Amino acid sequence: MVGATAVAANTITAAVPDLEVPFIVSPPAVVTTMLEMAKVSANDMLLDLGSGDGRIVILAAKNYHARGLGVEIDPRLVTIARTNAAKANVTDRAQFRVEDLFITDLAAATVITMYLLPDVNLALRPKLLALKPGTRIVSHDWDLGDWLHDVMRVVDNPDKPVGREKTSKIFLWTVPAQIDGKWCAIDIGEPVEPPMIVTLDLIQKYQSLHGVLLAGRPDQKKPMRIQFRSTVHGDQFVIADATTDAVAKVGTDTIIFDGSAYGLSNQLKFKRAHQCTAPDDRPVSRPGSVQPLAGLKTTG
Hints:
Blueprint: H1 28-37, E1 45-49, H2 55-64, E2 67-72, H3 75-87, E3 94-98, E4 111-114, H4 118-129, E5 136-140, E6 151-156, E7 167-174, E8 181-187, E9 196-205, E10 208-216, E11 224-231, E12 236-240, E13 245-250, E14 254-257, E15 268-272, E16 276-277, E17 283-284
Parallel strand pairs: 1-2, 1-4, 2-3, 4-5
Antiparallel strand pairs: 5-7, 6-7, 8-9, 8-15, 9-10, 10-11, 12-13, 13-14, 14-15, 16-17
């Protein structure tokens, strides 16, 4: 929320110098940028991994009215965070817990923030990828390896205590739906015509998607073929050729696609299948074979 009133500086206690495991705070400009990039709102549940003195969760609650939970391994920092939340009058929305972030249940979060080390980010990556599609992940300074970010910003950080560069990098990812593999739909069409078989063969690596859509009847020698590249943004992606594009939406074990722009049904419902089934439950052969795009491998 651009232009939101900042939490007063005196509501956040400075880092405690005698902690056995020191932590490096994110300055206000970095925290604000992280929350703005994630488009945090009152509808969000924010989870801060390694929450330190609580500033990210507190700012999200104070300025954006989000609910938040901070998990931190050091009980003294959790005590400080709870004190800071009380000073900011957000204890009803900002909670803190002494917990190892590797055992934290991430499932309820719609936004995850973190300022961790590179190896820790990579160790968390499988759990992050398994989150609900559309969950936003924001990291201060460190990326997620070959899972490329969706957005990156550089923020001035003149008082940064580590490194030569006095800037901070903020990375944003949106968790993509996991749709790699073969999908199938039946387009009933006119009653006098045999059903049309529509298939999607999708090759996915993180949010990057390569695919082939085939549509034809079992007796059709040359089905319609659309080869496309797309990006899975949360639960949506676009199927496009040189002149036409249409949005596909991922549901629970389904993909819903408006194929009207391609002369297909406006409500095609794909399901995972190696073999399509006609409305009378008899197997129907697929309209031709699809070979994986050259040089691409499925993720597993």
